[in-house]
């Protein structure tokens, strides 16, 4: 139970932020207040990154590189967050990438970026507290730790979507955002995906070469299980004549809103017709062969393959410039492969698992 004790000590530390003002009860809102307090404290300590740059806390093996570039469609509706020592846990880090769409998309994306991490912490705290009282649970077992995270993510995403619908300052009827995030807790990585951003792992094969492993599903409307749900809800899925191959979600009797993804926060005009905000939650155990994870919006994956992406990142000598180089390569690929089409916003997070010396031991020479 050693690992469990460590996690619960972190939970106890989190409550100290609100000690004296309220009881810290998870049921009376104290959990959410303590999570918000942790968010403010982390920002004060510079352990949160919300713009292009790098995050590498002293004494930590993990290293995050973030970069975002505005496309040719107006304001940049992509945004990111990296939070080291997530939940007062030294071995935890949270990364999230959000891709807004619609007239208010940039506001929706930033709102979800701000609310998802503390809300997730609140629900995770609840799960830990309940597990602490259950003698049958052993959180040394990864699948039980994962179960708490999965349940926490499902509750978090449902709550966020309800809150967005009632938001007084943002019009989310025809606007929304995707959300792809991961929590790395020691060697356990939990992924939650709403939309069509993608997570790709770089690992080392037996011959020493870097290999891409896709960790998430791009939730496009033409995926069989997604299309079936949409059609059963009387929504429609089809491509416009001038966009062959780009499947979109449409209302039953209108040529709107034309969403190019089947899951998103917001977009309440079509929530009754098959669009959902339920995340697919999965997990993976990181090994010594696994080098880094790329989280990127579809602006990258529309023009760069998984294998190309991991080779671009792994062959960048300065890890601080890894995400910027990936985005710049995607920009060039847009100009080459999609002439005449307005470039999308392009954003990426590269989360490295090992120190530079360890990485050099495992990865092949730069291309």
UniProtKB/TrEMBL annotation:
What InterPro entries does the database record attribute to this sequence?
Answer: PP2C, PPM-type-like_dom_sf, PPM-type_phosphatase-like_dom
Cited SMART domains: PP2Cc
Provide the top EC class. Answer: hydrolase
Q: Where is the signal peptide?
A: none
Gene3D superfamilies, alphabetized: PPM-type phosphatase domain (3.60.40.10)
Q: Which UniProt keywords apply?
A: Hydrolase, Magnesium, Manganese, Metal-binding, Protein phosphatase
GO biological process entries? negative regulation of growth; response to water deprivation
Annotated EC = 3.1.3.16
Ranges for the PPM-type phosphatase domain?
Answer: 63-353
GO molecular function of the protein, one example? Answer: protein serine/threonine phosphatase activity
Q: Name the cofactor(s).
A: Mg(2+); Mn(2+)
Q: Say which domain of life the source belongs to.
A: Eukaryota
Q: Which family does it belong to?
A: Belongs to the PP2C family.
Its recorded name reads protein-serine/threonine phosphatase
Q: Which organism is it from?
A: Cucumis melo var. makuwa
**What is this organism's lineage?**
Eukaryota, Viridiplantae, Streptophyta, Embryophyta, Tracheophyta
């Amino acid at each position: 139970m050693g690992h469990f004790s460590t996690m619960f000590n972190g939970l106890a530390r989190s409550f100290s932020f609100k000690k004296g003002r309220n009881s810290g009860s998870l049921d009376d809102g104290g959990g959410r207040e303590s999570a918000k307090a942790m968010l403010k404290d982390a920002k004060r300590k510079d352990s949160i990154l919300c713009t292009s740059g790098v995050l590498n806390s002293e004494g930590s093996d993990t290293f995050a590189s973030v970069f975002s570039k505005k496309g040719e469609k107006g304001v940049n509706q992509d945004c990111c967050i990296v939070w080291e020592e997530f939940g007062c846990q030294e071995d935890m880090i949270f990364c999230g990438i959000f891709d807004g769409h619609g007239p208010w998309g940039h506001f929706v994306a930033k709102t979800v970026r701000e609310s998802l991490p503390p809300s997730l912490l609140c629900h995770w705290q609840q799960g830990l507290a309940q597990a602490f009282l259950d003698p049958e649970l052993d959180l040394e077992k990864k699948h039980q730790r994962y179960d708490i995270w999965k349940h926490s993510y499902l509750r978090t995403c449902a709550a966020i979507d309800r809150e967005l619908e009632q938001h007084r300052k943002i019009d989310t009827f025809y606007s929304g955002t995707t959300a792809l995030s991961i929590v790395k807790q020691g060697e356990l990585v939990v992924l939650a995906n709403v939309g069509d951003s993608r997570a790709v792992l770089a690992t080392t094969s037996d011959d020493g070469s870097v290999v891409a492993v896709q960790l998430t599903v791009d939730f496009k409307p033409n995926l069989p299980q997604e299309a079936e749900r949409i059609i059963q809800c009387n929504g429609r899925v089809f491509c416009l004549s001038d966009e062959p191959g780009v499947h979109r979600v449409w209302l039953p009797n209108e040529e709107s809103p034309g969403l190019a993804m089947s899951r998103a926060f917001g977009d309440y005009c079509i929530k009754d017709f098959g669009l959902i905000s339920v995340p697919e939650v999965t997990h993976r155990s990181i090994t010594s062969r696994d080098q880094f994870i790329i989280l990127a919006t579809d602006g990258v994956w529309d023009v760069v393959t998984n294998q190309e992406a991991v080779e671009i990142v792994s062959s960048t000598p300065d890890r601080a410039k890894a995400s910027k180089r990936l985005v710049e390569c995607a920009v060039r690929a847009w100009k080459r492969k999609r002439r005449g089409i307005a470039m999308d916003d392009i954003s990426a997070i590269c989360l490295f698992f090992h120190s530079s010396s360890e990485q050099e031991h495992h990865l092949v020479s730069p291309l």
